[in-house]
Prior knowledge:
- This protein has helices spanning 70-73, 93-106, 117-120, 132-141, 162-168, 198-207, 218-224; strands spanning 15-16, 22-26, 49-54, 86-91, 125-130, 156-158, 180-185, 192-194, 229-232, 237-240, 250-253, 258-260.
- The longest helix is centred in the middle third of the chain and has 14 residues, at 93-106.
- The strands form three sheets. Strands 1-2-3-4 form a four-stranded antiparallel sheet, with helices on one face.
- It contains seven helices and twelve strands.
- 21% of the residues lie in helices and 19% in strands.
- By secondary structure, it is an alpha+beta fold.
- The chain has two domains: 15-106; 117-260, Phosphoenolpyruvate Carboxykinase, domain 3, CATH 3.90.228.
Amino acid sequence: MTKRTEEDGRLFPSIKWDHGWSLSIQADKYGYQCSPKRKLDTLEDYETVEVKIDGPHGTYVDPHTMQILPHVLDKFPKLTVDSGPSIGGNLTWDDVDVVKQAILLASLSPNDGVPSGTIGWCCRDVYHGTSNEYAEDIMNHGIQPSTGTGYFGRAFYVADDVDLAISNYAEFSDDENGGAVIVTTIKEGALILDLRNREDNQKWIESGLVSIIGRDDFDLQARKRGIDGVYDRSVGGLAIFNAAILMKPHIINNAASSDVETDANSPEIKM
């Protein structure tokens, strides 16, 4: 039997899976969608409970992209930018078993639970590893799309993990101190397509951009279709085609491992 163990006996412990998945099952007299509305000693004494799904994606999980039966899925509201964590209310224990099975399957699939890019990348910090010289140029002149050899052509390439930006990019800059990392934040309302998400992947296919990858004007064609950026796990990061969706950056100096704050006169990000 599951007894309360956290926060002076109010919360029940969560269940954890491999690869960062967890399920919090809660019930109480106040604050939870459960029955009966009482404070019972053990979780299994409740007829229905409230559950919260957390996954390894660095953002909220979208249950509607998981293998959850429709009658259980109806107990989870549609995920929006402002909706917060994925919480389902008044689930029976049979419903909980359905969710547990879906999480088990999701722990074996890198795509299950990933929300659309517009939701999943909204207001997230992203990181660009580079040389100290180019980092200072960004601070002085604003972010410019790279003309390098990235898979999607001209774009500003970022990672969602600072260690990845350091190891895969900054440390290859040939700077003696290991280069630098630019940190910026994606603005709300940016149209990012996350190709792990089924709906986003379908929009990507329908856009016709797949057939013109490699063209010099690929970024312009993406923006013409209203697409600000695309995340593709297979190429290891997020390509930003419209730098106007990014907040003012600041620098993490890799050698000092400390933030260098920008002043009020830092340039706006521009194309």
